[in-house]
Each structure stands twice: as structure tokens, then as C-alpha cells.
Amino acid sequence: MEAQWNPTSYPQSPSVVFLLVATSYAWLLPVASPQRIPTDPQAAPEYAHSIRLDGDIILGGLFPVHSRGDRGTPCGELKKEKGIHRLEAMMFAIDLINKDPELLPNITLGARILDTCSRDTYALEQSLTFVQALIERDGSDVRCANGDPPIFTKPDKIVGVIGAAASSVSIMVANILRLFKIPQVSYASTAPELSDNTRYDFFSRVVPPDSYQAQAMMDIVTAMEWNYVSTLASEGNYGESGVEAFIQISRETGGVCIAQSLKIPREPRPGEFDKIIRRLLETSNARAIIMFANEDDIRRILDAAKRNNQTGHFLWVGSDSWGSKISPVIGQERVAEGAITILPKRASVDAFDRYFRSRSLSNNRRNVWFAEFWEENFNCKLGMHGKRPGSLKKCTGLEKVGRDSSYEQEGKVQFVMDAVYAMAHALHRMHRELCYGYPGLCPRMASNIDGKELLSHIRAVSFNGSAGTPVVFNENGDAPGRYDIFQYQITNRSTAEYRVIGSWTNKLHLKVEAMRWRTGDPSLPASVCSIPCRAGERKKVVKGVPCCWHCERCEGYHYQASEFTCELCPYEMRPDANRTGCVPIPIIKLEWHSPWAIVPVFISMLGIIATSFVIVTFVRYNDTPIVRASGREMSYVLLTGIFLCYAITFLMIATPDVGVCSFRRIFLGLGMCFSYAALLTKTNRIHRIFEQGKKSVTAPRFISPASQLVITFSLISVQLLGVFVWFAVDPPHTVVDYGEQRTQDPTSARGVLKCDISDLSLICSLGYSILLMVTCTVYAIKTRGVPETFNEAKPIGFTMYTTCIIWLAFIPIFFGTSQSAERMYIQTTTLTISLSLSASVSLGMLYMPKVYIILFHPEQNVPKRKRSFKAIVTAATMSGKLTQKGGDRPNGEVKTELCESMETNTSSTKTTYVSYNNHAI
């Protein structure tokens, strides 16, 4: 008994109202039945619009037998593969099931197959046929011309629908079928939108959705290291949903940016595809084009690229609508070369090949479109009223598929058969549940097959499909994602073909070595907005386009911490050669072989040799009058200071450690302190003697050698006390000064190993010695009038004047180079040479004349006659007066007068002799 449709059980929406009106007219449509094709080639065949196969259970079928027609006509040219191959696959699968004793035994499947003409609105009209049996018919207002009530043809009751192909068609049809609870299994619709189980709850498919395909394409793009791509979609659910899924995945995963997302209109105007190519060229760096487009649009976009001389520029990544089809690339192989395409994993069904090759006009009359296929396939015309115009040859009817024409199984044949088998397995499960042990259809299934119950059985099926791959559905009715990845390659023989280069099953497996770009070129092309930054460069991302950036080198002491940041190296480190990390700054010190060290060491060694020679000479001639008159004790103290001034050079150049730094603190100022303390004591003694002589003839106190030593070492002890306080406050240690040679170029940066002696500490250490030197200079100036016959005041004066000049030159050189990169070398060399020159001046002016007399003029090294303190003071006074008169007399008169005065003074003195050392000034 037929089920009666109750209008109140369905929502009264405008779409439903439209359906009611449409179906009311559909009642009056005659049911198309297979038309017998005449065997007479001269007879005109009659073409119908549907195929009907009788059976106990009727399945609906939707196939794009014809392409979309031009404006005003719903249907266009016949589709040999996507139309005829697929619908024949459905009929072949039904034949196999009906012959299978294990699957639906004693039950035959029938079919009602319709042509969608690749247009969703036309398919909607055609699919009304599937719901006619579920609508209650009211003929009370309809009467025949003779007054009799109308006789309605009983429509077939469709329990399930196989199809459609295009996603847009499936979406349109699914909206109707769900209202009448008719399950639908598609063999080619892949739009992600159809996975929404709340809107398309009666829809299932044996092909994976484009969300899997989009993920596979994203994995391909990532594997090719492309991060800047454009998308191109045919207007409609398939193209737009596929691109939207790809864009969504790119946002979630990151790393891939969409340069442009273009859409191909359903009804493109002339020049539309050339305009699309020009727009894609606006972002020429985005060479990879992700395409979710139908077969016709793919062919026309390739043709436009060829017309615009862009062969080899674009890197096409096509969806399963391109797959491994030949039709889109015929005549434009070069522009399609290198295209990567994706196709659900499939295999050719050999049994279908044998079946289809055996089809002829005589044995395939159930296919109402087969005659049209025959004309198209063999390029001939059936009789005078054949569909194909022109003066073509007439068909004989003896042609054979595959022998007289090319033949290759269409890619979705496997899925069409799997969809039919899925429906059959679900019906078989339902039969076992409702009609267990009953042969054929039991009343419960014969009267009504509940669509919702059948859907639950469809979702639960699991079997090996026609190609040996498992057929299962998830909770949304989707098949698992399994894809083969192809590349369109031109071989060395100039033949083009699709080659399998990988697969995707939840994960990409790509054989990059098998890929070819342009003829014979294995290198990977680029599709990036910006080239990768080199090592040591950071990315400065363009706002809003994370895949586009400018490369900025990490400058100075910065290194590349991450892809987008540069960070400053620690103070004691510098960037490595690639600026990807930091390495320790090399540590240097003043080396002995450096020119900055060789010169002061050479001077110091000469000075030490000369000083040692003087000391040895003085020790050897220790009791001679000149040595005794020089003040032996003070001379040895002074020579010790001179020796230390030379020796400090070696400490200043030696590798710093705690011991060296300790000795530097002690001896840096000690040598000068010894020298100038002794000279100060001498000059002070001379000054006191002559100042005292102006007042009385009594000798001043503390002029004996012992007193002089006490005074000298008292002055030296102040220096040592300061050094010991310095040791207590700040123990000596070494430091590495990274700021002294921290140049702008990190490769020239060096850390200087040095003692922890600041410039201020150095000045404080030398300050006391400089104070002694200045004081000594003052006394030398005061005693400059003492006759050279009686004292060393003048040589000491010249020594101090020269020393002051040396140290006045030292100060600006030392502090003026504090910012120089060669600071360590310049300052150390300047200091050591200044100390050596000071010592050399003292040694040369005070002791070399004496050594010269001792060694080369021993006749002058004889005792002088003793002079009393009074005589000495009187001579000094007269010398002062004569000096004043000398300003008014010619040169030489002063000396004559002084000589005469000296002779007079000498003649009045007793001729007794005393030690020169005791009274010599």
C-alpha cells in the first residue's frame, strides 16, 4: 500500500509551497519509458529524458549526461565519460547485484535515471519525479474531455537516490529529498558544506569531502615550500566551498598566505578569463594557483594563460575536478606542464571495461542516450534525423567501442558502483532485520521502506568496494580521505601524461624526486612573496601579509635570536660569523713580540745595562774622591730608583695575574719615589746649607750622610704606606676590559686582560712621586746660583727641568688616548718610555760625567783641598754678587773676577786637607 503524504507533517516554508505547486504539475507529466531504437539506420531515433529499469526496489539516479546549455536552453552537448560512463556503471552495478545470490536474494533492483544537464535548477525540476509517489493526489477537480475521471499513471516509489555529480546539484536535490526522507548517496559531490549533518542529514557520499582535499592540497603547498598562493574557484558550491576550506586551513595552520582569491562566474562574459589572468599577474610572485574549478573553466583558463604568453609561469594545483582528465589539457599541454592534480584514490574496474566495450546499439536499448553517444563517439550520424549535423558518415551499427574509437574508463565509475553497492548492502541489512527468513520482499518492506531506518543502515555499511578499497561512512556520511597525487609531465619523447607522484591518507607522501618542472628541469620552482632571509637577518613583516617581509640585518653586537627578532649579545660576547649566535670576545694582552713592547723593552734593557755599569763602576771605585764626593749612600739610593724605573717596564708588559698586579702596584711609583726622594734630599740639603750660611757660619742640622738616608727613606715610606693601604682597601686582581676595544665592528672587538688599576689609581700611585719631582724642581731652581765648582745643583736642575718636560708631555698623550682602540698599547708604551726616559735623564746628567772621569780621566779623580763652611758660604755670596755685576759687563768678566776671588780666598786659607765627601756641597 502506498504511503499517503500528510502536508501538515512538513514545515510550510516557501520552498515547500514551491514544491507542492511544481509537483502538482508533475502529476500530469507522462512517465518516460525506454524507447526502442530502430534497427534501420535510416529511421530517426526518438530520444527520451530518463531511463527506467523495472524492479522490486527502485533506486533513483542523477547523472550529468549533457553539459550545461547556452542561454535559454537547459542542456548542451553530450558528456561521453562523465555522463554515459557513469550511468552505465550504475546499470552495470544493478545487473551484478541482481545476479548475486548472496546480496538481496530473490529481490531485484530497478532504477529511474535522470539527466541533470550539469545545472542545479534543471536537476531540481527533474528530481521532482522521485517524490511523486509520496505525494497524495487529488483529482476531484480534474475531468477528462468526455467527463470521465482522469487515470493517473502510478509513479515509481524511489527508496534512495544515487547522485548527483556536481556539489551544487547535490545540495539543491538534497534539500528536497530530506523533506521526504529519501536517502541520497553521491559518487562525486565533494563540497565541505554537505558534511553538515544538521542540514543535509540524508546525504552520504562515497568520495571524501573537499575539506580533506583542501588539507591534502595545503600539505602539497607546504611540502613545496610555497607560502604565497592565489586561489581560483568556479562560482558554485563546489568551487567556493573548496576554496573556503583551503583558506580556512591556511588561517589555522599559518605559513601560507593567499595573494588573491578569484571567482569564475557561472556565465562568464567574453574576455573574462583574460581578465582573470591579468589579475593573477598583479601578484606575480604568487605563481602557485589553487584551483577548485569545473572541467570547462579549467580548459578556458589554461587557454587564456596561453594567449597571454604565460606558458611556464603559473604553477597549477588542481582539485579532483581536474584530476587526470585529458580534455582540459588537449591542445595546451605546454601551459599545463607541471600541473599538480589530486584525485580520490581509485582503481579501474576491469569488469566494467569488458561490459562497456561489449555495448552496442542492439544490446543497449535501455539507455535512451546511447544512440546519441554512438554518434558522438564514432563521429557518425544515425539516419536522416540524427542529432549530429553536417555531412558526416552514416553509422553502420557495427562499430565497436575501443576498437573503432578511443576508450578510457572514466574516473568516477568505481565510486558510482560503490554508491549503488552501498545502497544495496544497506537494503540487505534492512531485509535481514525486517524480513528474516522471508524470500523476497516481505510486507513490511514491500508496503513502505522507511527512509530514516534505511539511512541508519547506509551509515553502518562496511565492505570492500569494486576496486578493492573499503567503503565506510563516518557520522556525517563522508568517506575517508584517500587521494592519489598526479603531475602532468612532458617526457623526453614530447608526449604528455599524468604521473602519480604521491598519495595522501591523512598524511602526505610525496615523491619530490619524481616531479618535473618544465621539460627536464627537476629543480623546485618558487611561489613566495619574499625570499628567505639569510643567516643573521630578521624578518620585518609587511602589515597584514605575514608571508611578505623585508630582511633586516642584525647590526652591531646584535644576533638573530629568532626569525623575527635580533637581540644584543652579552657584554663579554659578540655575534658569530653568521650572526645566529654569540661567541666569546677574544681576550688579548700586550705581547712581548708586539712593536708596542719591543721599543720600551729595548730602551729598558739599555737602561738596565747602563745603570748596572754605573753601579759596578761606583762599587769598584767606591773610595775614590769623585764617588765619595757624589755622596755614595745617596747615589746608591738614586741608582736603585733608576734601576727600578727601567725594570718596571717588564712588569707592565708581563701577562697580568695577581702576582704581577701586586708587583705593579708596589714598583710602579717606587722607582720614581726612590729617585726623586734622593734628589729632593740633596737639593734640600744644598738649599739649607746656603740659606743657613747667609745667617751664620754654623752648619745646618741633618746634613750628614746618615741623616740624608733617614730623610730619604722617610719620604719613601710614605709611598709604601699608601701602597699598603691600597692593598687593604682593594686587593689586586685581574679584569678583562671589554669596553676598551669595543669597536663598532664586532669582528675587531677584543677583551683586554689587565690589572684592576684605573687611571685614577695610576695617577694616585704616581702622584706622590710627581709631587716629589715638582718639589725637587722647586729646590733646584732655588739653588741654581750655587757655583758648579762646589756642588751638583746645576746638573740636578737640568735633570729636573728635563724630567718635568717629559711628564708634561706624558699627561696629554696618556689621557688623550683614553678613547682610542689602541689605548692599552699606547698608554702602556707611553708610561714605560716616560719612566725609562726619566731614569735615563737622571742617569745621563748625574752619573755619566762622573763615570767618564773615573774611567777616562783618572788624573782628575784626586782629593780637593779642605774648605771651611765659612769659606764656602763666602764664595757662594761673592758668586751671587758677581753674577749681578755680570749683567753690566762683557762676557767672560764674571768668570775672571770669580777666579781671582777664589784664588785670593784660597791663599788666605790654611793648606790642610779634609775629606771632600764631608763638606762638598
How would you describe this structure to a colleague?
With 921 residues, the protein is α/β, with parallel strands linked by helices. It folds into 5 domains: 50-135 and 154-207 and 350-361 and 409-470, Rossmann fold, CATH 3.40.50.2300; 210-346 and 481-514, Response regulator (Rossmann fold, 3-Layer(aba) Sandwich); 362-400, no CATH class; 537-584, GPCR, family 3, nine cysteines domain (Tumor Necrosis Factor Receptor, subunit A, domain 2, Ribbon), CATH 2.10.50.30; 595-857, Rhodopsin 7-helix transmembrane proteins (Rhopdopsin 7-helix transmembrane proteins). Helix content is 43%, strand content 14%. It has 27 helices and 27 strands. Strands 10-9-11-12-13-16-17-18 form an 8-stranded mixed sheet, with helices on both faces. A 6-stranded mixed sheet has the order 1-5-2-6-7-8, sandwiched between helices. Helix 9 (333-336) links the parallel strand 12 and strand 13. Helix 12 (413-434) packs across helix 14, helix 15 packs parallel to helix 23 and helix 19 crosses helix 25. The relative contact order is 0.07. Belongs to the G-protein coupled receptor 3 family. It is a multi-pass membrane protein.
Descriptive terms for the model:
27 strands; alpha/beta; transmembrane; six-stranded mixed sheet; Rossmann fold; 43% helix; 921 residues; disordered N terminus; disordered C terminus; 27 helices; eight-stranded mixed sheet; 5 domains
